[in-house]
Amino acid sequence: MRRYDTRDIAVQYLAPQTMTEAVQALAESKGRVHVLAGGSDLLARMKGGYLEPDVIVDIKRIKSMSVIKKRAEGFSIGAGVPCIHMGRHSALKKAWPGVVEAAGLIGSDQIQGRCTIVGNLCNASPAADSVPALFAAGAMAVIQGPKGERIINIENVVKGPGKTSLKKGEMVERIQLPVKQARSGDAYLRLTPRTEMDIAIVSASVNLTLDRAGTVTEARVALGAVAPVALLVAKAGKALIGTQLDDEALETMAAACRDACDPIDDKRGTIDYRTRVAGVLATRAAKLAWQRAGGK
Amino acid sequence: MSLLIETTVNGDQREFVCEADETLMDALRNRMSLTGVKEGCGTGDCGACSILLDGELVCSCLVLGAEAAGRTIETVEGISDGDELHPLQQKFLEHAALQCGICTPGFLVAAKALLERNPNPTEEEIRYGLAGNLCRCTGYDKIVRAVQAAAVEMNGES
Ligand SMILES: Cc1cc2nc3c(=O)[nH]c(=O)nc-3n(C[C@H](O)[C@H](O)[C@H](O)COP(=O)(O)OP(=O)(O)OC[C@H]3O[C@@H](n4cnc5c(N)ncnc54)[C@H](O)[C@@H]3O)c2cc1C
Ligand code: FES
Ligand code: FES
After folding, report:
1. Inter-chain contact A58–B64, Cβ cutoff 8 Å?
2. Which residue of B has its CA nearest to A37?
């Protein structure tokens, strides 16, 4: 990573203590300015020579951003929280098992100790594990910038592979999950050629809410790794509403998932394979979410 | 931009100078001569550079040296008690759980963290727990056996 060639500007490392200082540092720094959370994408990309930042702003010294909080509007997960802390938070795990499992699948134990869901989101990889789960959960991103705070739906953060909608000087402060509904449950499943340390070739997440009779009243279905960005498939969710997850409803949902796919074709998975598996994983995730919501 | 960093390594107060984009792995090896920290890949895949940072297992190749300021670091050099080997080190020897040895420091640090969290892991838990450490020589079986044997010994003693 350290290069011994001569460069005009030396890299700067900043570790602000507060969010205000961080936003100021991001807004005022010139050149290629990068937020450093867990560094598991940023430092790997620097090592590979894909990225040469001029300024690195480490946000992990900001105490308010390193916590998981239960607020009136639901759980809030700070941008500095490593995924391993999500796995250790029993109340969060109980409320959002799918989100926590998705975050827990990122990398090895070593990576878990560092990686964050906001880094996973902002790195904007089509295969990012936590992103479909956050889509299905209906999460919001709380963004801070020179013009103050803005809160947007999680689906509006990533614009394309490696591209976000964040403007100069902006950063994500935290992820806000909604209040967990009674009789609801979420699940995330991914397919990888190896069981550990691999990147999803397809992933699916489903979040369901049931009424007392066990009929689905709300459903969100999201897919990962089958398009340039994660997809929230509205039609797939709709196919489950008003049903008790009978086979026909599940097949309509799976078909909607397949229709939404626009995957790459490579040696890890052909277009046909990824498309077909998207429907299969969504079906399995729906069944698991249903069980977690108390469906019988 | 050179930075002066004060940190605690294996219980000792240490100071080092590093560049802003220098990894903690490079700083530990080149500035503090802690060459038990190995570089395999430099991108988080092999675990040879594993250390504990504030008690958390991490790849030091994915941490900047600058991030270590005021934090606590433990490396493989701090595992033994003076001349007395840690049970994991002893069992790695007895079970021949190494050949070339480049992966060994990382495995020891990761296995120690694993046994602290889960003193009695199953084989599957050991294999998942050490999935972030790669070994090109042993085929892993002997490593798993050594960790199991160390767990037995450590549980017997406490
Ligand atoms: C060995 C290995 C295995 C991996 N396995 C997986 C896997 O299984 N699944 C998976 O999805 N990913 C995987 N990854 C990728 C990576 O670990 C994840 O994407 C991780 O969640 C990134 O989080 P981070 O905090 O480390 O991000 P960083 O590297 O710190 O940041 C990533 C990007 O997001 C930006 N950023 C970070 N925080 C903010 C913020 N608050 N506001 C604005 N921008 C921000 C950074 O500037 C950078 O561009 C793996 C990586 C490695 C090295
Ligand atoms: S050198 Fe750090 S993980 Fe390989
Ligand atoms: S002993 Fe050679 S890589 Fe593990």
Report:
1. yes
2. B63
Residue type (1 letter), A272:
D
Centroid of chain to Cα A110: 19
d(CA B141, CA B152): 17
Low pLDDT (below 70) residues in chain A? 1-9
- Band of pLDDT at residue B1, cut at 50, 70 and 90: confident
| Average per-residue pLDDT for chain B | 97
The size of chain A, in residues, is 296
> Which of the residues A83, A109, A115 would you substitute to probe the B interface, choosing the one with the greatest number of B C-beta atoms within 10 Å?
A109
Name which of A243, A275, A238, A280 is nearest A259 in CA terms: A275
Cα A213 to Cα A179, A242, A246, A278, B130: the distances in Å are 21, 11, 14, 29, 45
ipTM of predicted complex: 0.96
Q: To test the ligand 2 pocket, which listed residue (B58, B59, B102, B130) has its Cβ within 8 A of the most ligand atoms?
A: B59
Q: How many CB atoms lie within 10 A of CB B152?
A: 13
The pLDDT tens digits for A109-124 are 999 999 999 999 999 9
Three-class SS state of A128: coil
Q: What angle do helix axes A271-292 and A247-260 make, rounded to 10 degrees? A: 140
Domains for chain B: give ranges and CATH numbers: 2-78 (3.10.20.30), 87-154 (1.10.150.120)
Predicted pLDDT of residue A10: 83
A111 lines ligand 1 (CB under 6 A): yes
User: What domains are there in chain A, each with its CATH number?
Assistant: 2-58 (3.30.43), 64-177 (3.30.465.10), 184-292 (3.30.390.50)
